[in-house]
Write a structure and sequence with these properties.
single chain, Jelly Rolls, 2 domains
Length: 267
Amino acid sequence: MKPKKLAKILAAGALLAALLYFIPLLTIAYLLLGLIDVSRHGRLNPRLLKNYFAGKGILTWLLAPLNLLFDLTCFRRHYRLYLDDFPEAERAEIQDVLDTFEAKKEEITSKLRAQMKGRKRGMLFYKWYGRDADTSVPEFVCDHVYVKTIGVSVFNSRAKTSTHFGPLRLTVRLLYNLTPRTSERIFIEVNDEKHYWHDDPLFIFDDTIQHRSVNDADGERFCVFLDVLRPSRFTRFHNGCMRPFGRLLFGVNRVFYKRWDMLAQMK
């Protein structure tokens, strides 16, 4: 075993021992809640547990009590969803946003393509957790009831993300490929299952499940990037929960996307 890896294991073990000694009940409760939360993947293995408890899933683990509470207030679904799973009003709001992207696709992609020279991955946010960011598309500058984040992610040739977890299960992630191409080297992988964009440009999933995106081909990949409230009878409650998260997280999206280049629509 490499010394660096051994040092990380020893440090994690020492921290866990200290937590069990000083706050045993809270530590045990968090471990149990984390196991319940990560078990949503359906199958557990050492790599998944390591990523969740000691890797990029740590924030998801810390938010496990809240996420499990939101599970109780939402319709239970598999980690993948379809438009028909949403109530009519939410489906209409989502479709309105997607129609705007389709109508402005050439304008948006051409302006973002010009900014991607020498960059691997770029992200543009029009809205972030319910608050307006880039206001260059007037149709997005409004108070959406269900759609909380609106953006576009751009991958240049041979770009991909590592396997990671979203933090909060108050919303689900909707991706819509604006430039789908027939290739098995361009896909999103969720819970070790691959979805190819040439099969369907629309993909909706619970992003607290481990996932990664890959563009292992030549040419850019443009994906609409939405966070929408989970289907539920408690929309008012969820919007109330979203407001403090919006205030807390607005302006710190660079923390979540520190390996991305932040782009601008440019009027």
